[in-house]
Design goal:
By secondary structure, this protein is α+β, with helices and mostly antiparallel strands. It has 15 helices and 23 strands. The strands form 7 sheets. A 7-stranded mixed β-sheet has the order 17-18-16-15-21-22-23. Strands 3-2-1-5-14-13 form a 6-stranded mixed β-sheet, with helices on both faces.
């Protein structure tokens, strides 16, 4: 009797702000058959600064690889490796030692606010967005790289010596996985178009590094930039030094920023399809096809994906910095909850009261559609009766209201968007919270659908990796849970108006001079 042919598997690495994970998918069924997970730390050494240890980001991935290996019966059944990653986070390292020159500066970091203010006076905002698709903001990589070169002597010396490597998290992981210093010139120093489009340094039309933007940000020519590739091609193979050699020779052939990976995982390949992810932040992407669409209402023009030599697909994106992070803030900073799962129960207890408390969690300023780096977090409507239940409810509602702001902007930018919004496909850790999803449906006046497959982001990376090597990964896009908008809910629009007033009051707080009245 002939032996049963082993399944074709595709391995996905999902490196996020909160954790690193490795997931293995059965290509035929799209089912996740093995997983490993590591929490990654984040530090805030000063107000507005957010950093992570670059070595920890890599080692956490390597530990996951080691853990997942015994769960796979045959290594030969793994046909490809894909990567999805937190975007914009900036890493520089010395190519001669392979060591990071500074901590990874995370996408949430605000230290470059003054740099942004100075640069905004030197360049037309409309011309800038036309060139790179995004506004001048601390969110993206370019000002982080500029700060590292100007403020860190060891970085500056490494640049002058011609040894400073630059990259986002995907670039760092692929460089390490393909051998780093050990493998010499065979090591892959690459990024994909989705990640490059988040740097403020790539020409959004040509999908190549812009010399004009490099000059604008004063980035020395000596800095080593990664080669920009498509989201689906073979970038290199895993080196024998990685994970005790257990994955040696496996092709790394898919790479997408995490939000674009989720777009792919949802099967949003055609124009006028949309998804929203609720994780550390909240990110809504609307596929505009092969045509760039410039936003007039505070959204980003970004690359959605490019598979091999196929045309580049673009998207409009609404990026919100704080969604799930506000729940962690209530747990870690305020001690209002001991576990993130508690917030749903507490929020429900406040349901019989008036919607008086409004919470704008602008911990990293405001992103889409406002782009106000000097905004601060604010809680309004407190009375002697306010309890932690009210705060927990307002925290969850803040995610809904921020999403509505993005949706309103998206509809204004695209007449076809509203027609595509009969059902909003959602994913991410926060979607386990049913109270949140029902409120989201009611506030947006849109039905909400959660896919049966919960690992949408990793699945998108696996799909891209498989496509490059001729392995079709099935996307399970069937919806498991839906939440219908309740037209009977009274007052939601009024509450949204109250939210908008709170947003107005939280703007231009940092750096503002307040006069004492006598």
């Amino acid at each position: 009797m002939a032996e049963k042919e082993p399944k074709s598997l595709v391995l996905a690495i999902d490196q996020g702000t909160s954790s690193s994970r490795v997931l293995v998918f059965d290509a035929q069924s799209g089912e996740c058959v093995a997983t490993a997970n590591r929490i990654v730390n984040k530090s805030e050494p000063h107000d507005g600064w957010v950093e992570q240890c670059a070595e920890e980001l890599y080692s956490s991935v390597e530990e996951c690889l080691v853990e997942v290996r015994p769960k796979i019966s045959s290594l030969s059944s793994i046909k490809a490796v894909g990567i999805s990653n937190q975007r914009e986070t900036t890493i520089v390292w010395d190519r001669t030692t392979g060591l990071p020159l500074y901590n990874a500066i995370v996408w949430q970091d605000q230290r470059t606010a003054n740099i942004v203010k100075e640069l905004q006076q030197a360049y037309s905002e409309s011309n800038f967005k036309t060139l790179c698709g995004v506004p001048l903001d601390t969110y993206f990589s370019a000002t982080k790289l500029k700060w590292l070169i100007e403020q860190c002597e060891n970085v500056r010396k490494c640049v002058e010596a011609g040894n400073c490597m630059f990259g986002t998290v995907d670039t760092w992981l692929m460089w390490k996985l393909t051998g780093g210093v050990v493998n010499g010139d065979k090591t892959a120093h690459v990024t994909d178009v989705t990640n490059a489009s988040r740097t403020m340094l790539m020409n959004i039309s040509t999908c190549q590094w812009s010399e004009e933007l490099k000059r604008f940000f004063d980035i020395p020519a000596e800095v080593k930039f990664p080669r920009i590739c498509s989201s689906s091609e073979v970038y290199g193979t895993i080196h024998s030094s990685v994970a005790n050699g257990q994955f040696e020779g496996l092709a790394i052939s898919g790479c997408l920023g995490d939000q674009q990976a989720a777009l792919v995982g949802h099967g949003c390949f055609s124009a006028n399809t949309v998804k929203s992810t609720f994780g550390t932040g909240c990110f809504m992407l609307y596929n505009t096809g092969t045509q760039q669409r410039a936003s007039q209402h505070g959204l980003l023009t970004t690359v959605a994906f490019q598979f091999g030599k196929e045309d580049v697909h673009y998207a409009l994106e609404g990026a919100v910095a704080v969604a799930g992070d506000v729940v962690k803030w209530l747990r870690d900073n305020m001690g209002m909850i001991s576990d993130t799962s508690e917030i749903e129960t507490l929020a429900k207890k406040a349901c019989d009261d008036d919607f008086n408390v409004v919470f704008v969690p602008a911990f990293s300023g405001l992103k889409a559609p406002y782009w106000q780096a000097d905004a601060c977090g604010i809680i309004l409507g407190l009375t002697g009766r306010t309890s932690r239940e009210h705060i927990c409810r307002a925290a969850l509602e803040s995610t809904c209201f921020q999403t509505k702001e993005v949706l309103v902007a998206m509809v204004k930018d695209s007449s076809t968007c509203e027609d595509s919004m009969r059902m909003l496909r959602v994913d991410g850790g926060m979607t386990k919270n049913k109270f949140l999803l029902q409120n989201l449906a009611d506030i947006l006046h849109v039905d909400i659908g959660c896919p049966r497959m919960s690992e949408i982001t990793a699945l998108g990376a696996a799909y891209a990796a498989g496509k490059a090597v001729g392995v079709d990964v099935t996307l399970d896009i069937a919806l498991d849970v839906t939440h219908a908008a309740q037209d009977s809910i009274v007052g939601k629009d009024e509450y949204f108006g109250r939210w908008q007033e709170a947003v107005r009051r939280c703007q231009h707080w940092h750096g503002h001079t307040f006069n004492v009245s006598h």
